[in-house]
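The instructor's notes for this session suggest beginning with a concrete chain rather than abstract definitions. Hand out the sequence below and ask the class to guess, before any prediction is shown, which regions might be ordered.
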Amino acid sequence: VGSEMCIRDRQIVPGTLDDYKGLAHYHYRDSRPGPVAAIFALKPRSKSGLRLQLPTVGVIVYSMPVPEVELRDTATGGFFAGFDRSTKCSLLNKHVRCITRLIVDPRLRGLGLASRLIRETMPRLEVPIIEAMAVMGLVNPFLERAGMTAYRAEVPIRSVRLIEAFSSVGIEDGC
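After discussion, reveal the predicted structure:
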């Protein structure tokens, strides 16, 4: 009941760069996100109904898409392929947003707040495609729990050759 109460006592509101900056030191990447499209903050509900400055306990940052993402062609069946750069960028900007930062205060991790932030904010963007390229997604399936679909990249031929060359001299994967 304690964690359920903790989750219900939080609300998702439009956020600011200050909300992101307040939690940025908990993120594994220290660079700023790209061109920001939207920020949403997870904050405690105000018990009094007054608009108080409540601490941000989670934040999600959506950015504009980058033009070239290999897995996008796989995920969309090549929908954006074959266009000139200008047309492609225009279509991407109209239809795609990218989750570039998702941070939950470490004291509240493991309660499902990251998945909730994703699940409840994606519809607010009013675009059909939301992308997330996250290393943490390999470790913790919070993106899938939020309703996203995982796509795995194939190992490029040049990498396969390099792996085979290392293996032939006794250097194995994981060493």
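Then share the key points. The helical segments are 2-8, 17-23, 70-76, 85-95, 113-121, 136-139, 142-145, 157-168. Strands lie at 10-14, 36-44, 58-63, 96-104, 129-132.
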